[in-house]
Amino acid sequence: MAIIGVGHLGEAVLIGLLESGMPPAQIWATAQPAERAAILADAYGIEVGTDNAGAVSEADVVLIATRPGAVERVLDEIAPALEPDAVVVSLAAGVPLAKLAARLPEGTIAVRAMTNVAARAREAATALTAPEGTDLTEIEDLFDRVGVTVTVEESLMDLVTAVGGSGPAFLLYLADAMTSAAVDGGMDRAAARVMVEQTLLGACLHLQSSDEPPAELLDQVTTPGGPTAAALDVLNDAAVGDAVRRAVAAAARRGRGLAR
């Protein structure tokens, strides 16, 4: 397989695939500039260069990990070099299937995937969409190596981008605020980070292991008149829930406009 345009997200997927046991010899990649390509090759023991067409020439799966605005140019570069049965998977937000197909040889399968940086820890949430009737088994298996995978209608991909692609930033924002509050209160920063990391991880694992809605789990950990209730009163007074909804909507709108 080939990963074209390895940036932060592409590197996260690369790390997850290698951690899953995929042999380095099965992965070709490109990155810019040449200095970054050399750093990636040295770090991960894979072939990394700057020639996009050369990287895809023997690949059965091609991941496009460039920024949205560069996708069409990259597809023009690689189209003549693609294997006849290659599957091209775009990780770029906002680039519709129709735009992908228009730049690829007739009959080449195009897939959109929205994943996130948790692929690095093999805990990504990935959504796939493809033309009706496409067999996505191979691509699902690929992304299952770095987390969990769902399939959705293309009309939902901008929302998926907001929830799944931007979602880790929401938690990192919260982690930063919680850590800062602990440090402001006198806690050592290293200890505060450990407490916040494990608290968020534990809460996520608790949510994942339960069939109950998040709101019910929230009620279960909130004792009336207790510290948690006092904290939630502050968050509710600040309309944090509404702010999160607006943030998701804003991310979805931006996703729709990225490649237009």
TrEMBL record:
Keyword NADP in record: yes
UniProt keyword list: Amino-acid biosynthesis, Cytoplasm, NADP, Oxidoreductase, Proline biosynthesis
Superkingdom of the organism of origin: Bacteria
One Gene Ontology term, aspect cellular component: cytoplasm
InterPro entries with a match to the protein in the record: 6-PGluconate_DH-like_C_sf (IPR008927), NAD(P)-bd_dom_sf (IPR036291), P5C_Rdtase_cat_N (IPR028939), P5CR-like_CS (IPR053790), P5CR_dimer (IPR029036), Pyrroline-COOH_reductase (IPR000304)
Biological process terms in GO annotation: L-proline biosynthetic process
Residue ranges constituting the Pyrroline-5-carboxylate reductase dimerisation domain according to the UniProt record: 154-257
Domain Pyrroline-5-carboxylate reductase catalytic N-terminal as annotated: residue spans: 2-94
Listed pathway(s): Amino-acid biosynthesis; L-proline biosynthesis; L-proline from L-glutamate 5-semialdehyde: step 1/1
Enzymatic class: oxidoreductase
Reactions performed catalytically: L-proline + NADP(+) = (S)-1-pyrroline-5-carboxylate + NADPH + 2 H(+); L-proline + NAD(+) = (S)-1-pyrroline-5-carboxylate + NADH + 2 H(+)
Main subcellular location: cytoplasm
GO molecular function, one term: pyrroline-5-carboxylate reductase activity
Pfam families: F420_oxidored, P5CR_dimer
Keyword Ubl conjugation: no
EC number(s) recorded for this UniProt protein: 1.5.1.2
Protein residues bound to NADP(+): I4, G5, V6, G7, H8, L9, A65, T66, R67, P68
Subcellular location field: Cytoplasm
Binding residues for NADPH: N52
Function: Catalyzes the reduction of 1-pyrroline-5-carboxylate (PCA) to L-proline.
Family according to the record: Belongs to the pyrroline-5-carboxylate reductase family.
Name of this chain's protein: Pyrroline-5-carboxylate reductase
Lineage: Bacteria, Bacillati, Actinomycetota, Actinomycetes, Glycomycetales
